[in-house]
């Protein structure tokens, strides 16, 4: 049922008195003559909460979960030969084909920043004689150590510190001085290396 003008005006006036009890009658009548009413209600501003970044595992948790452990049945040299072939192709692509006329400095610079998982390396010099002669495929590279699988299917953990590693691909031979190479693989890509003739262990 439609209301007449007077009934509607009375309803709005009563509604405003209830909604805004502190406002005087004169002020309410003044608002009605403007034919526009803004109710005094302020919404609370929502605080923007900071998005929490998902946290990864801590080093302790990774050790407890054995995320980087290589199971004994997976410690077989032949199992990783396809990985080595993939690595060689990766280096050839990285070094524009590794042509015979390629500059050794360019190849050395690329190798220093390349991912070495799958590379075959040999320890040529070491302050610990027992490390000298170890040859195998790099299965894991960490900040301070290489995990290498040898042809005898033995997993060797070789520290980078005080060791020199020899790496050969398509006739190019490169030497890695582990003491100057103590970075994670992800960090090396942005690292600037200075090429030097000889470096002490």
UniProtKB/TrEMBL annotation:
Major site of localization recorded for this protein: nucleus
Reply yes or no: does the keyword Phosphoprotein apply: yes
- GO biological process terms held by the UniProt record: rRNA processing; tRNA 5'-leader removal
InterPro entries per record = RNase_P/MRP_Rpp29-subunit (IPR016848), RNase_P/MRP_Rpp29_sf (IPR036980), Rof/RNase_P-like (IPR023534), Rpp29/RNP1 (IPR002730)
Annotated GO MF terms: ribonuclease P RNA binding
Q: Quaternary structure?
A: Component of nuclear RNase P and RNase MRP ribonucleoproteins. RNase P consists of a catalytic RNA moiety and 10 different protein chains; POP1, POP4, POP5, POP7, RPP14, RPP21, RPP25, RPP30, RPP38 and RPP40. Within the RNase P complex, POP1, POP7 and RPP25 form the 'finger' subcomplex, POP5, RPP14, RPP40 and homodimeric RPP30 form the 'palm' subcomplex, and RPP21, POP4 and RPP38 form the 'wrist' subcomplex. All subunits of the RNase P complex interact with the catalytic RNA. Several subunits of RNase P are also part of the RNase MRP complex.
Tell me the function of this protein.
Component of ribonuclease P, a ribonucleoprotein complex that generates mature tRNA molecules by cleaving their 5'-ends.
As given in the record, the signal peptide range reads none
The organism encoding this protein is: Crypturellus undulatus
Q: Which UniProt keywords apply?
A: Nucleus, Phosphoprotein, tRNA processing
Assigned GO CC terms: nucleolus; ribonuclease MRP complex; ribonuclease P complex
Location within or outside the cell? Nucleus, Nucleolus
Return the Pfam families for the record. Answer: RNase_P-MRP_p29
Protein family per UniProt: Belongs to the eukaryotic/archaeal RNase P protein component 1 family.
Could you tell me what this protein is called?
Ribonuclease P protein subunit p29
Under PANTHER family, the record lists:
RIBONUCLEASE P PROTEIN SUBUNIT P29, RIBONUCLEASE P SUBUNIT P29
